[in-house]
């Protein structure tokens, strides 16, 4: 009979592993070895069984037990299968005289088995498999030994479930991180991963004292492809371009897709500037041949901007901005060529300064604009709110990408003034819309950059805008990104609490694109979680994407938060986010960003 203190020792050892990452195989091997020590048996094994699949042995105390486990698996017959099917223990105290297993019993007896006792691995009403105990002499187990064996089987089942949950959580976290770092369409690194690579490149450059460069590639007249042939053709072209550009990347360098038709090369460990000139030439040559798409062949060119950082100099996103500006110089020259900015030459800082001066002029002359993208109720498409988006167009350059505009604003110190202007402009526009729709619920979401949020007196600025426009604070949603919560969480918490005290709501934008843990949802006073379009893109096609979005949605709801799915572009995606439980959505399926006047017309139509 098993001693109570011995069984307690085994259970204690086993319980301590439940919260560790010790390999499951090692734990189960140790378990079956200890079982032989504490019970009157000569061998033990664990077999997993799934309906419709053959049994799979996963642990055995010795070679003989392993042989018996394999025998049941190979024959598809034996006590472990019976215990799994019935959910009850199976005792065969004398295998030679037992008639229940006509195939297994003779083979097992000839191999040296005299008795077998099997206990189901139970979890609730279900079962995972069975724990097999073998003896080389006939004889039954007493009641206490059988009870101890079933206890050990139940503990093994609990550990298996725990280990499986840990493995699934680890896989989900790795998948989540992988998706957050790569572009869903092309599979290339995205802006987040590029930023990480820039930081690594900066440290490497300072250590090796070698030069680095960034090449910014932008397709010429890409908008016409979408307009003339549709967005599916545009997407197909982007994939084909990514494939060609990947073929010319240097080993060890990074090629990322950072926006719609914008690609960035990060080149490290440059021996000479001519290394990048060769790469730029290969990029130009990559566009020499037309692209054969489904039903159409297109000739495409690209403009390339190049920015250098000298030996040992820091490599930052400022280098990307410089390459972006160089690319616009190439476009002004007609496109299909490349232009260089070398940070080692002080004269070349003129271009960046010019862009900053242009932004100052645009702000002073009210040449900036705000566009609005509707946010809708997923179940019926009713417009419940809008997101305000900064727009900046320079007459001789065309539209400036939003990311570039924000980067210039932050580097020049204009972000606080521009952010305040966008906030007030959007609040007044909402006042105008509701003048014709009194009592209509309409939230206003405004993005807040990290520097703007952390600027002294930001909450006071928001309070002033609310007072002047007499806007309902509960209708204002300020969107912040994950990074600020991670990088300066304590300070961010103080500012967010000040904003909450005003009555405004807070949204966590682009959730999943950074390194924000799910625990941040519980720590910070967030009202709305906006799931990044990276994850929305594949729901309905990729079960893992749906599972991740569902998990974030479920947790958000448990914490009392609403969920908005970003980037919904197809009816299939809409149906999926509805089934998952996302209350709100925005994306091209519902509406593209539009002017305040066009939104007023949209509201007229939706309320008619």
State the secondary-structure class. Answer: alpha/beta
Portion in helices: 40-55%
Rg, nearest Å: 32 Å
> Quick one: biggest sheet?
8 strands, mixed, barrel
Question: Low-confidence stretches at least 5 residues in length (pLDDT < 50)?
Answer: 341-348
Order of the strands making up the biggest sheet: 13-14-17-18-19-20-21-22
Determine the N-to-C terminus distance: 81 Å
Question: What's a quick, concise take on this entry?
Answer:
The protein is an alpha/beta fold and 608 residues long.
Architecture overview:
The chain is an alpha/beta fold. Helix content is 49%, strand content 21%. The protein is built from 23 helices and 22 strands. Strands 13-14-17-18-19-20-21-22 form an 8-stranded mixed barrel, surrounded by 4 helices. Helix 19 (519-523) links the parallel strand 19 (505-511) and strand 20. Helix 14 (415-435) runs parallel beside helix 16 (458-469) and helix 16 (458-469) packs parallel to helix 18 (489-502). The protein is elongated. Residues 341-348 have low confidence and may be disordered.
Topology:
Elements: H1 4-16, H2 24-38, E1 43-48, E2 56-60, H3 63-75, H4 79-86, E3 90-92, H5 104-110, E4 115-123, E5 126-135, H6 143-180, H7 191-208, E6 211-219, H8 222-229, H9 231-247, E7 254-259, E8 262-270, H10 274-286, E9 291-293, E10 296-298, E11 302-309, H11 317-332, E12 338-342, H12 349-364, E13 369-377, E14 383-391, E15 393-394, E16 398-399, H13 402-412, H14 415-435, E17 443-447, H15 450-454, H16 458-469, E18 476-481, H17 482-487, H18 489-502, E19 505-511, H19 519-523, E20 528-531, H20 533-536, H21 543-558, E21 562-566, H22 571-580, E22 584-586, H23 596-606
Parallel strand pairs: 11-12, 14-17, 17-18, 18-19, 19-20, 20-21, 21-22
Antiparallel strand pairs: 1-2, 1-5, 3-4, 4-5, 6-8, 6-11, 7-8, 9-10, 13-14, 13-22, 15-16
Helix pairs in contact: 1-2, 1-6, 2-6, 8-9, 12-13, 14-16, 16-18
